[in-house]
Amino acid sequence: MTPSPLFTALALVLFFFLPGYFLMKVLWPEWRLKGREGIERGVTIVAGALVSSTAMTILVGFVLGNTSSFQAGQSDPILEEVLGALSVAFFLTGLWRGAYSRVAPPASSYSETAMQGEDDTEKFVEEMETLVREEVRLRGEIKRAKRDDPAEAKRLKVELDARVARRRDLERARETKLTS
Length: 180
Hints:
The structure is a single chain. The longest helix has 30 residues, at 150-179. The chain folds into two domains: 5-115, no CATH class; 121-179. The chain is built from seven helices and no strands. It is mainly alpha-helical. 73% of the residues lie in helices and 0% in strands. It is elongated.
């Protein structure tokens, strides 16, 4: 008896993708496929799903193969049932951890951001670059406003002073953090 195309497609998805995908969502529930790291995380999830699903299929098949009653085939789909049960268990665990919610949960202990510890260098540099760009823009606007509208120039000067103070505060805070 030849297996139906639907059974074959479902079995392939179970053997090579679903259990691993749900396991990846359990391990990294905060990962979303948006933002700067979206593509990288998507590739990581798919690759991890393929590898871990294949490994689970082999391990479950090995365990079942060492029992006397297991025969691989459509008439006895015990391998598919076990992989389906693992998929459901991983899905429910991921649901409990917030992997499928609209708002991402906080980073887990397995995530790359948690592994980086308290290092926020990238965020610091980004904020400093933004402040410096704004300072340059404001200085140019102040020069133009001095000729056309002195009151506007004063307002822009106050805004510039606030940006400079913010940048200096960030520099001091960063220095204090790095030296302590």
